[in-house]
Design goal:
The complex is a heterodimer. By secondary structure, chain A is α/β, with parallel strands linked by helices. Chain A has helices at residues 15-28, 55-69, 71-82, 88-102, 112-132, 153-163, 202-217, 226-232, and strands at residues 3-4, 8-11, 30-31, 34-37, 48-51, 136-138, 141-146, 168-173, 178-183, 186-191. In chain A, β6 and β7 form a beta hairpin. The radius of gyration of chain A is 22 Å and the shape is elongated. Chain A starts with a strand and ends in a 17-residue tail after the last helix. Chain B is built from 17 helices and ten strands. The longest helix of chain B has 24 residues, at 183-206. In chain B, 43% of the residues are buried. Classes of the chains: A alpha/beta, B alpha/beta. Chains A and B meet through α5, α6, α7 and α8 of A and α1, β1, β2, α2 and α12 of B.
């Protein structure tokens, strides 16, 4: 039903932009060769078509998707969009088109296999970050900086707002230049280019020292296993974690 | 003594307690409190020995009246002693919790004065946390054997999980090495906690305002390697504990020598980490794969294979069960294949409703074909030709570390063989499956 065409869709960098591409492909009954962001620096040899984001069309697609895919695949689509998989838009479109046409799927085949794999990575990173995020108290505000590979802030909001309803939190995503603030349990997501932090106060430094000492003491000397530690806690999380920060002066 | 010194001493004293999960209870936060709990647990960090740091695991005090021979805190050992005040410990917990360092508190204690007095002090800490600080995070409390039932009840109302350490796998070793801890004093709080958690579960199902009692259940711990008990005895005890007391977990702690004692292994003995690992593998098989202890070990084979995990060992001893046809076998049967776990078995069961899986699909679904290929057929076909030698199968099931160990054994025979009661015939069989290289 969907004819493959040698064409590249250039879409806006947003979920609405992606949904507009879905609308376009169903309208023209075609499957593009690739879907790229219009800001992407990639050189394209094939002819391309720019698809503007249209909120009316996007809303229609959004209403249609749960009915077409069923709830679990719809959730997969939503979560895939948050992941860092480079060709996610194309695979998501393929999934929507194939499910619309055939109504059956095999977990071992594309596009489901890749989408499930990238959502698993997204969920694993979220689960890691729920534990590895470290807050520092700056005058009563709890601030944390993270460097995630996937866009995980929407998935962290509910957990931290629920856990600290009386605190004021700020989680800054330095990779995606976005920030999540939870003030007294109310969350807000907004773009933030950079964050400059003051020096840590002396009482706060004491708590950091207590925690570092705790982590150091709790290891049993006869069972040291740095490879296991690296395996379970990947190195790239450590730069944001208090117990691994370099000693101050 | 300041908080830093106390923290160092009391963390050091508590670290041999293996239990540190923060799992078992789902609790949403609420307006007036701080904290929540998730039933899968959250690992906040990993220590240099590879273990998860999820809770603030400390003793309330390491001043102990008892003299258990394997314990670093025993009365006759000359170590620095300290004690937290309830306010100090509660404040420390809250400050760590706010910064997302921990999921909650794991509170144990040495026996100060007598079990009842110690438990009362622990209750003071928990009451401070729950009532004054409105802490709704995870609390795991150790119940001291010999405590009054009323105090256990009060402790359970405040904690999420309770545990009583079984300590040693047999009564004989318990009376030899820890004569202050009587078997009845250990089992009767376990029985009480089991009964009360079950009553409480049904109460909370009927009355929404019923106060909770240890909603995350009960666990226990035993020390491996301090006594001559076999793996078979330990596994049977574990199975018995799960069925009788409905425990959530049994933890095994490899014995780390802390004292010179004629009744205990020598001070330079390495902790039996492989044995502990095999016991955890067997524990998983009991809980998630539907195995029974009798199937894994017996009086004739009382200890685990040093090179094969218990599941692969069982599979090799029961060739009549295989090959398993992946497209039609039940979920329970699929679980018995080495290389297929609960996640892969579930994915196979789901996707075969839609379409026929083949070997490529199986690999993508997470089946470890390197192990499973000898035991399954898919649509009547096997992945490899049928003329297979037992050696080839054995070689694929042994891990990389196992191969290294075997090569070391070939090069250096001697005392190390006594670590595992493996027969000479077994070692020959294993050696024959390795390539002839030295």
């Amino acid at each position: 039903m969907f004819t493959p065409v040698e064409l590249i869709y250039l879409c806006e960098d947003s979920y609405e932009g992606f949904l507009s591409c879905v609308f376009e492909s169903f309208l023209k009954k075609e499957r593009p060769e690739n879907i790229l962001s219009e800001n992407s620096p990639q050189l394209v040899l094939l002819p391309s078509r720019r698809i503007p984001a249209d909120s009316a069309r996007a809303r229609r697609v959004e209403a249609f998707l749960p009915r077409c895919l069923g709830l679990s695949l719809y959730r997969l689509i939503q979560y895939s969009y948050l992941s860092c998989f480079p060709q996610k838009e194309l695979y998501m479109l393929m999934l929507i088109q194939e499910t619309y046409e055939h109504r059956s799927f095999n977990l071992g085949e594309e596009p489901l296999h890749s989408l499930y794999a990238c959502v698993r990575r997204l969920e694993r990173e979220t689960q890691h970050l729920k534990g590895f995020i470290r807050f520092t108290d700056y005058d009563g505000y709890l601030v944390s900086v993270i460097h995630p590979q996937n866009y995980v802030l929407p998935l962290l909001a509910g957990h931290f707002a629920d856990r600290f309803p009386q605190e004021n939190l700020l989680i800054y995503d330095a990779e995606h230049h976005a920030a999540l603030s939870c003030l007294q349990g109310q969350c807000e997501l907004f773009p933030l280019e950079s964050l400059a932090l003051n020096e840590v106060s002396s009482p706060e430094q004491q708590i950091h020292t207590l925690w570092k000492e705790y982590c150091r003491t709790v290891a049993i000397e006869g069972r040291l296993n740095p490879p296991a530690q690296r395996n379970l806690m990947p190195m790239h999380f450590r730069k944001d974690m208090t117990e691994f920060e370099k000693e101050v002066r | 003594m300041d908080v830093m010194d106390k923290l160092k001493i009391l963390t050091d004293a508590a670290k041999y307690d293996a239990a540190c999960t923060s799992s078992g209870v789902d609790r949403r936060g609420s307006g007036g409190s701080i904290g929540s709990a998730v039933s899968c647990g959250i690992c906040h960090s990993f220590s240099a020995d590879g273990r998860c740091i999820s809770l603030l695991k400390v003793l309330l005090t390491n001043v102990c009246r008892y003299d258990c021979r394997y314990c670093v805190n025993r009365r006759s050992n000359d170590v620095p002693r300290a004690a937290f005040t309830p306010r100090e410990l509660a404040e420390l917990t809250i400050q760590f919790y706010r910064r997302n360092y921990i999921e909650g508190l794991f509170l144990s204690s040495a026996v100060l004065r007598d079990p009842n007095y110690t438990t009362e002090q622990m209750i003071r800490v928990l009451e401070l946390l729950r009532n004054a600080y409105h802490f709704a995070g995870y609390i795991h409390a150790k119940a001291i054997p010999g405590t009054d039932p009323d105090l256990i009840t009060r402790l359970g109302r405040l904690a999420d999980r309770l545990s009583v350490n079984i300590e040693l796998p047999s009564q004989q070793s318990l009376s030899l090495l820890a004569p202050d801890k009587k078997k009845e004093a250990i089992l009767s709080p376990m029985q009480q906690i089991c009964r009360q958690t079950e009553e409480n579960q049904s109460d909370r199902g009927r009355y929404s305002s019923a106060p909770s009692f240890a909603p995350a259940g009960q666990s226990t711990q035993m020390i491996i390697g301090a006594t001559p008990d076999t793996d078979h005895q330990i596994l049977q005890l574990t199975q018995g504990l799960y069925s009788k007391y409905h425990l959530k977990r049994v933890f095994f702690s490899a014995y780390t020598p802390v004292a010179e004692d004629p009744l205990l292994p020598a001070l330079n003995t390495k902790p039996p980490l492989l044995r502990e690992h095999r016991l955890y593998q067997a524990d998983w098989l009991l809980r998630f794969y539907g195995y029974r202890a009798e199937e894994l070990l017996s009086d004739a084979h009382p200890n685990f294979h040093p090179l094969l995990d218990p599941k692969a060992d069982w599979a090799l001893q029961h060739p009549e069960f295989f090959p398993v046809e992946v497209t039609t076998a039940s979920y329970e049967t699929l679980l018995r294949v080495p290389g297929i776990g609960p996640a892969s078995a579930r994915r196979i069961a789901i996707s075969r409703r839609q379409s026929r899986p083949n070997f490529t699909h199986l690999k993508k679904m997470g089946v470890v074909l390197k192990r499973a290929q000898y035991f399954i057929t898919c649509g009547g076909h096997t992945l490899l030709p049928l003329t297979l030698s037992r050696e080839a199968v054995l070689r694929s099931l042994i891990s990389q570390q196992g191969v290294q160990w075997l090569q070391d054994q070939q090069a250096f025979t001697g005392e190390q063989l006594s670590l595992f009661p493996a027969s000479a015939g077994l070692l020959e069989e294993l050696s024959s499956c390795l390539p002839l290289s030295n």
